[in-house]
Design brief:
Elements lengths: L1 H13 L2 E5 L6 H16 L3 E5 L17 E2 L11 E5 L17 E5 L10 E4 L6 H11 L6 H14 L10 H12 L4 H9 L4 H12 L1 E3 L5 E6 L1 H7 L21 E9 L2 E8 L5 H7 L3 E2 L3 E7 L2 H17 L4
Parallel strand pairs: 1-2, 1-4, 2-3, 4-5, 5-6, 8-9
Antiparallel strand pairs: 7-8, 9-10, 10-12, 11-12
């Protein structure tokens, strides 16, 4: 691993200006990793623009440097010497395009990644992209101050489910501890992310749980949130983040599915599983992807038929687990 990190560090040292991007509908890891990366480049006296399709979700607007994220460029992207994609398995997932003439670096921890840049550091053994940015900053001799540290801690915290997912490794816990030693305040970050609920978030949670259904064998829990539910409760898709995890607290449930209706016959599906089922493999079949126990996909079609297909794939894995 040291070799690839040193290669990435050498690549970054070659250039003076960077455009940084990530997947649309940013989460804690993508937002935190991008801002931290920009701070690292700034410490190296380099120019960096963070450009995303979507604005910073309100839940992460407290992060130092959140104002750095733009949804429109302040100059032509062709003028940047290099591009950095973070936490993004394909260029399509960004919702925008960095010109092909701009050399790019791809840093990601997802299993399915198109490796679309001239230099790709993809490691599914990492808990988060934030963990990778921390290791890169260390290789670049940029120590984490509270601004960098708060962003990286947020990325690790959210992508490990508050250090509860299987991806929580001794290394990521050591990094989290180092960030706390650097001045990061875990209680403040946790309070900002998990303790600032809007009425719509609780109302959409109630609507979701009241609409929970179970498979006959009680191993698959499904929630369907239709578009009208979001409108009725004044909620956004971002307000439903984390709801998919609730059904896994039911002892018998092996897989939790959350269907969010984006438009008629078009769903954003979130998958969560315990150890037995590789939901990334199922999501990939539908054009999505993710991690073994946490994945997602956007799927067009009839809800009942889609659920039947996914349920069949889940039961096949329960009978014959993937390695």
């Amino acid at each position: 691993m040291t070799a690839i990190i040193n290669e990435v560090a050498g690549w970054i040292r070659k250039y003076r200006s960077f455009v940084i991007t990530s997947h649309e509908a940013g989460d804690g890891d993508s937002i935190g990793s991008q801002i931290a990366m920009a701070f690292v480049l700034q410490a190296m006296k380099k120019d960096a623009l963070i450009l995303n399709k979507d604005p910073v979700p309100e839940i992460y607007d407290f992060l130092p440097g959140a104002e750095k994220i733009r949804t429109s460029p302040n100059r032509k992207l062709e003028e940047f010497e290099a591009g950095i994609y973070l936490d993004c398995g394909s260029t399509e997932r960004t919702g925008l395009t960095i010109p092909d003439t701009v050399p790019c670096l791809n840093i990601d921890h997802h299993l399915n990644n198109d490796r679309f840049c001239e230099l790709n550091w993809v490691d599914a053994g990492m808990s988060s992209t934030a963990e990778m940015v921390y290791l890169l900053a260390d290789a670049l001799s940029i120590p984490p101050d509270t601004s960098i540290g708060s962003n990286l801690y947020t990325g690790i915290l959210t992508d490990t489910g508050c250090f509860t997912y299987n991806s929580t490794s001794p290394r990521c816990l050591r990094i989290a501890a180092a960030l706390v030693e650097a001045g990061v305040q875990p209680s403040q970050i946790s309070s900002q992310i998990y303790g600032r609920k809007k009425p719509g978030q609780l109302l959409i949670l109630g609507a979701a749980l009241s609409n929970l259904t179970m498979s006959e064998d009680q191993k698959i829990a499904t929630i369907l949130l239709k578009g009208e539910a979001f409108e009725r409760h004044g909620a956004t898709f971002a307000d439903a983040e984390g709801i998919v995890n609730y059904p896994l607290t039911i002892a018998s449930v092996e897989v939790s599915l959350l269907f969010k209706e984006m438009s008629e016959g078009f769903f954003k599906v979130s998958f969560r599983s315990r150890k037995k089922v590789n939901v990334a493999a199922i999501a990939e079949h539908f054009g999505g992807g993710g991690h073994r126990n946490a994945a997602g996909a956007k799927i067009k079609g009839n809800f009942t038929l889609i659920l039947e297909q996914i349920s069949k794939a889940i039961h096949q894995q329960l009978a014959n687990p993937l390695p």
